Amino acid sequence: QNFFGGILNLVAPKAKLVDAVRPEDMTRDKEMVQDVKNDVLFNHGKTRVRTGLEIKGAMDKMDAANRSKIKIPIMILQGTADVTTSITSSLDFFGDIATPVEKKRFYKLKGFFHEIFNDPGRDKALKLVTKFVASGFTHMTDDAHEAKDGIVELD
């Protein structure tokens, strides 16, 4: 894939070969899905070769060695029904960062899709982020939801 992607990038960087994300996979909110389908600025169809390679290159730079340099407070929220981003990869990233466990949280939001702030039940996610930001990036969760490894599952 890297080999052919590199060649295609040289001869046809604007070729659209990789399937883009389907709007139906982004949110359970049917009205939002329809808005995305009607949005001319949203990439419908396939993604360009160069775009795909640039994304892959950026992700490659976030290898374990670079992840271990991250020491700032961090909050990651991901829906358990997200089919566009691997929750396993997100958890690997979370586990590799050097932020102390008391300053990092990974929230698994049960049933949420990729766009958690455009999904039904978004208020739950917004409250978590609002509390985190208002606390100066120090408040992670209520004591009832604490987890030793920093991972919290919410219904």
UniProtKB/TrEMBL annotation:
Residues 4-120 form the Serine aminopeptidase S33 domain. Gene3D superfamilies: alpha/beta hydrolase (3.40.50.1820). Pfam families: Hydrolase_4. SUPFAM superfamilies: alpha/beta-Hydrolases. This is Serine aminopeptidase S33 domain-containing protein.
